Amino acid sequence: MREILLGYGIFAMYYVLTINTIYFGIILFSFKEISKILKSTTFSKYKSLSGSNNVPPISILVPAFNEELTIIENVRSLLALHYPKHEVIVVNDGSSDDTVGVMIKEFELQYYKPTSMKDVIKTAKVRGLYYNPDYPNLYVVDKENGGKADSLNAGINLSSYPLISSIDADSLLEEDALIRIARMYMEKPEEYVAIGGNVRIANGCKIENGVVKNVKLPKKLLPMWQLVEYMKAFLGGRIGWSSVNGLIIVSGAFGVFRKDYVVEVGGYRGGYPGEDMNIIIKLHRHMLENNLPYKVAFCPDAVCWTQAPDTFKILGSQRKRWGRGNLKNMIEEGRFMFMRPKYKIMGWLTIPYNIIFETLSPYFRITGLLALIGYALMDMSGWKILLTFSLINILYGTLLGLGSMLLEEIAFQRYPRIRDFFKMLIYTVLMFFGYRQLGILWRFLGHIDFFRKKTSWGTMVRTSFNEDKKSA
Amino acid sequence: MEQHVGSRIIQTFHHFLQYYQESNLACGMIIARADLDAKQLERVKAHMERMEPEVGVQFSHDQEEGLVGILLDNRTIGYSHFYSLYVKEFLEDNGFLTGPILVGSFPESSPYAEQMLFDMITEIIESGGEKGEIRVFKKGNEKKNDSILIVDSDQKVLELVTSYFTHKGYTVHTATDGKEGVAQYELHHPNLVITEINLSALGGYQFIHHIKHLESIKAAPIMVLTNKQLEEDVKRTFEYGVSDYVTKPFSLMEIEQRMVKLLQPVHS
């Protein structure tokens, strides 16, 4: 019995080491890529591009559900993006608050019958459109509740431009975010099917009128943890994944897509969370099955600021939702691509990595830990193994965190102070004492929700964008 | 003669300036903020005579005020500016320089030689400025009292336009978004507005519309200065009643010429 426990425990340790090693490889790819990214951004003239006639127009889709508090500010900042030609389509997803009302009042919108809506993708019933010629590039679509994916589809039906951008109503784009993604797209417009932006945590920053004025690290524990986590996932992970064209997700918070392909794969699939990962996997599948040359890319200098949950309850429900979405995507789409040569990097690396090391990780980790603890209880000399393993794990993880922080410092320097660097480093180490374990647990609970056929979005309480205001 | 700032320099140059004024000959003037005694001034003199032996030059200084005055015989503003570069270099290398350098020339900068020297000294004492900055003196008497409001989210544009036009004698107000722009407009009633179209808080078009329709204030001419080069944007801004449309990257000279045109009816 003891040997079995020990054997299994050691297997679980190697499992964790393998995750870290794969991640290490991905970070190396990120480092390789970063110099290219730096050069291409340094020598681009974004200012003149943002007024140029040759930049493809973009339709920005903003699904809004109960956003009456923040929607005005966000729409204003979207209208003010430095971009030659874009339209902002706000889709009200049957809000129970006055989201449409405040928009009508602020922008003096008129009601129109939804006759101009194309019916490219089926959606919940559209009640009407709101428009004001004084704001020629702002549309508000009012429809019955159907979920986030459904709202995006309704936005696609109304949009008139070849590129669409999905944006969370609670995120703020930097004024040049769109033009930076467009510049990347313009390099190979026939190949880029989706480009994701870099999501940063806005907690702690000073925000005025929908513009981030003053970048600071969050003061609170949870947002700070999420910040280092995002940094690792986006800079360390996504740059590398995108360089081998194995990117499995473009954040729902901010991404740009080619509309024709999104429509070809049937639009966003509703009914459950994880629609952002779902659309990317479907695009990969579609392009590979039809042997079309394509790229799903990540543009780290196009920045979108988002408000991170700062309570355990909200964060937990977000993570459970992610766990649920991930599992569902793997069951519905991933298994068809698992280890199939036809799907190249996706089939050989991305999907297996996701299934074995992301989706199934709670089971291996939880059982492995239990086995080791059980073994240690039976054999008092076993604690050394436990300790050594934990130390290796922490050191390796810290090294990876340090890698992404270096990427940040090389390329972006949003947190220039030395103090900030050490603060981030400390939190990278602290993550191993509680936060990581919670994340694993939440993912597991998400799976349970999935099997109990839970389909709701969970709680997401909006807080004002300014930490200072709240603490004042 | 009453005692006033930099009076030592004024006394030294008094006769020269009278002579230039009467014979209407040109002369360059340089005033520098520098801390040195008579001996050190001799060194400056010797150095400058080595560097530029052709020019007839007079030096003077006022140790209490920490000023050095230089008079260049029969020289234009262009040459005086060039000469001041050498002066700056020498003063800096020896650690004498403590503030900005002001360059002017008679009769280019002003028709009154003595008054001009006095004004230059007053300006350099009162306005401060970066150490080592070289400014060209502008006649104050015909000061345009026109005020401009510039609205742009780009801090660099604001700084550039502000420094250039303040220097030209305009009063410049700035705002970084539409809301602030409206507030500034209502507060200062500027004679001209220069605005970007891409504005947050209140969009560019709404900002233009708003100030065009204020009851209390007569609408000022509006110049759009923007990255947007699309035909439809140009058309739309003119529909909103702007007077001019300039695209970035822009030349300050061009902006100034267009501005003068727009402001003319105000003066006539």
UniProtKB/TrEMBL annotation, chain A:
This is Glycosyltransferase. Belongs to the glycosyltransferase 2 family. The keyword Metal-binding does not apply. The chain crosses the membrane at residues 6-31, 345-365, 385-403, 424-445. Residues 59-201 form the Glycosyltransferase 2-like domain. The keyword Signal does not apply. Its EC number is 2.4.-.-. InterPro entries: Glyco_trans_2-like, Nucleotide-diphossugar_trans. GO terms for molecular function: glycosyltransferase activity. It comes from Pontibacillus chungwhensis. It holds the Pfam family Chitin_synth_2. Keywords: Glycosyltransferase, Membrane, Transferase, Transmembrane, Transmembrane helix.
From TrEMBL, chain B:
Keywords: Phosphoprotein. CDD domains: REC_OmpR (cd17574). It comes from Pontibacillus chungwhensis. This is Response regulator. Residues 147-263 form the Response regulatory domain. PROSITE patterns: RESPONSE_REGULATORY. It holds the Pfam family Response_reg. InterPro entries: Bact_response_regulator (IPR050595), CheY-like_superfamily (IPR011006), Sig_transdc_resp-reg_receiver (IPR001789). SUPFAM superfamilies: CheY-like.
